[in-house]
Amino acid sequence: MLKREILWRQIADDVLEGRRTTFHQRALAAELGMSPGNVNLALEPLRAVGAASVVGKNLIVRDVRKILLLWAARRQPSRPLAAFTSMERARDLVRVLPPGLALTSFAGFVARYGDEPAPFSVARAYVRADDQATLVELRRRFSETSDMGTATLIVHEADSVMARNLPEIVGPAQLYVDLWMEADFFASDYLRALEGRLAL
User: Fold this and answer.
1) Where in the chain is the domain with CATH 1.10.10.10?
2) Which runs of E-coded beta strand occur in 89-196?
3) What is the pLDDT along the chain (200 residues), one digit of tens a residue?
4) 130: which residues sit within 8 A by CB, 6+ positions away?
5) What is the CA radius of gyration of the chain?
6) Which CATH architecture group holds 3-74?
7) How far, rounded to the nearest angstrom, does the alpha carbon of residue 42 sit from its chain's CA centroid?
């Protein structure tokens, strides 16, 4: 994932989870391990679309939905690290997954909110790239496949910031953008439900 996407995710998550709406640019750079110059470049598109404004050395978020839409439109999706098939339905698969995975997309929404706007056939999750134990356990429990069309679980590599403290379920910003990237026709049902939950 590009550095600007990591920055946009951090800002959006902080706003959506009620932590803050004002960000000091140097502190944000230090928090994410980025140079202040890279942070400034990543913030320019947010200012250009009116999602945020700069007052002194602070960034103030004006419209978090615009941040999510900008990120979704410019997303550089990662290629899957591995894919698996199972006799379990995708929703039920979540209960038998080993630790070390961060659920996202349809399965992440259901796990976070307990609601299933539409049945889904593929669960997605992130794993640390160096977590070979989790990948080995997945291969022990499920059948690995190269055919993404038959997979019931698709695993992606977590970016460096997410991997520092991998959650069981991704934050709301990552969840929104991952749902946006889904091609299934019912993804819009999940997006509408998430927008309702986040009051977007």
Assistant:
1) 3-74
2) 102-104, 123-127, 143-144, 153-157
3) 899 999 999 999 999 999 999 999 999 999 999 999 999 999 999 999 999 999 988 999 999 999 999 999 999 877 899 999 998 889 898 889 999 999 999 999 999 999 999 999 999 999 999 999 999 999 999 999 999 989 999 999 999 999 999 999 999 999 999 999 999 999 999 999 999 999 99
4) none
5) 17
6) Orthogonal Bundle (1.10)
7) 18
